[in-house]
Structures are given as C-alpha cells and as structure tokens.
Amino acid sequence: TTSSIVASCQKEEITLPDHENVAPFLSTTRVLTHLCVGNFNEKSLNKRPIDIMIISVPGFGESSAHFDTGDLPKIILSELLRQGYRKPHVVFLNPLGGGTKEFMQNKELLSLVGLGDEIRDVEAITDHLLKTYKPKCDIIVMSHSLGALRQLGVIRAVNKLNSNKVDEQISSTRAKIRQLVILNGTRGGFLDLVKMTAVVQASLWPVVTRNCCLELSPAEHRMMMFDSSTPDAEVRGYNERALPGSLRTFLELAVPIGQPNMLDVIREAKTYGTDLRVDIVESEHDVLLPHPDTEAEKTELGNRGIDMRAHTIATPHSLPLT
C-alpha cells in the first residue's frame, strides 16, 4: 500500500550559468524534486546504487508541484518495489527555472523562449543528473502533454552518454532508456495542427491575445484541462501550482515548421535502446488535444522494432493529482 512507503523527498537547486544560449531563460536556477526509498548521500548510493531511475517531464504550464504532492509519487515507488527494484529514484524536472522567484518576476519575457530552448534546457538538467548520480541502470521517462516533445532533451542527454565508442563491457554499465510513458502527449506536426485548430481558437486564442504569456485562470483551466465533474478544490489546487507558459512555444506548436513531432522523439529514443517499450496513455475526456490514431502509430513504430502499447483512461487532459 502507498501508506506504507517510507520515501525520502528532497528539493535540489542547481545553477546552470554556462547553459548554452542562456539569454532566453528567466533564471539560471533549476529546481528538481527527488523521491527515493532511502536517502541520497554518497555513502548510501555506494552501498546500494540506484537500480531504476524515473525522469518525469511536465507539460505546458506544469511544474513538479503538480506531481510531488498527493499519492502519485508513492504509487510509482510502490509499483517499482513490487517489481523487485530495491533503490528506485524518481526525479521531477522544472525546466526554464520554473518554481524560482526570478522566473515569476520575469514571466513577461517568456515570449523569448521557444520549444528548442525548452528541449535544450531539459537536456542540460539531465546532463546534471547523469553526471551527479551516475546511474548505471535503466531509465524510464514519464511525460505529459507538451512533455512528450520536451522529453527529447532527456533522450539526447542519455544518447550523448552512450555515443562514445567504447568496449561492450563498459557500454553495458551505462544508463539507457528502457521505456517511455506518454500521457496525453502533444504530437506536433501539421496533422495535429489541422485537428487542433478549432480547439485552439475556442480555448487558447483569447488567452494569447490577453497577455504575452499563457497564464490561465481557474475557469480556463477547468474548460481546457478538466471537465465539469472535477471538484472545484482540485481545479483550484492545480491552478495554484501552475506556471505561465511561453507564447513563442505556443506559436511554434501552432505553426510547426521545423519542430519535432512525437514520433520523431520516440525514434530518437530507439537509437541506443534496442528493447525500447513505449506506453501511450490517452484520456477519454480530453477536450484540449485531438484523439490520435494510436493504431496507425503502433504500426509505424512496430515497423521500426519499437514495442508500443496504447491505453485509455477515463480522465480529462490533466489528472487532478493534488
């Protein structure tokens, strides 16, 4: 049961002063939330190293605060322990400096940050994780909504780790991505654009014309992210933890010229993951993103040797995790 899980939770602040193209970012500080059975000191890690790492990449306007409260982290740890892992390590990322005072004080500058910047930022954070914790285990990447594209940064950081030509014995001890779990993922590309046009015009365009960043009210969160059955307290809790999103990123998604799509991201994850599994979870009551043709995606990825499994759950776009 989740109540019996004894987990260590710590907030970590890292500074990325030498981040490539640091100018667009609103802060040099990144806030990460770590959840683990046991603790994180060096002596503990040497005694029992991490045997599975989960990296969670949030969606548009989300922060780790949406995930590090409530039961979700303990549910994840409980399932990993049930599967036999002894030292699971879950990390929730906050790209772009989200969660810092500097970020909130400069949110009007979000129009300078694009999707490519967001992906590079996730890559820089993942570089830090790999260098600091030196995991020699499988990595599972969990993403939600826009996180399906942002997770390309995790994939590139891990692939970079495995790109050097070394002997097979050393290569086998390096971390590799074993699984992608994608919840209501943003597909990207023009097919998504055609399907999303009506939704964007009805839901997001009024927000875009109101300010330079996408900062939603509780009513707008309910309309787009949830449904009428979601209790007010859960919508309010979600809204209180939300961050404004980048207007530039939104516009790049609306006109996706030269932007990655979700299948591109998955194919890149396959580079050094010969047994890669992809679980795509779609919500029945999602009114924000169009319902994709998962069977066609399964065929496309299957032709490339990727094991994709589709799941459906009876929830709105954003899970009420608070």
Structural account:
- The chain is of the alpha/beta class and 322 residues long.
- Helices cover 39% and strands 19% of the residues.
- The strands form 2 sheets. An 8-stranded mixed beta sheet has the order 1-2-4-3-5-6-9-10, sandwiched between helices.
- The longest helix is centred in the middle third of the chain and has 20 residues, at 189-208.
- The radius of gyration is 19 Å and the shape is globular.
What order do the helices and strands come in, and which of them pair?
Layout: E1 8-15, E2 29-36, H1 42-47, E3 52-57, H2 72-82, E4 88-92, H3 101-105, H4 115-133, E5 138-144, H5 147-150, H6 152-163, H7 168-171, E6 176-183, H8 189-208, E7 213-214, H9 218-225, H10 232-241, E8 245-246, H11 247-254, H12 262-269, E9 277-283, H13 294-302, E10 307-313
Parallel strand pairs: 3-4, 3-5, 5-6, 6-9, 9-10
Antiparallel strand pairs: 1-2, 2-4, 7-8
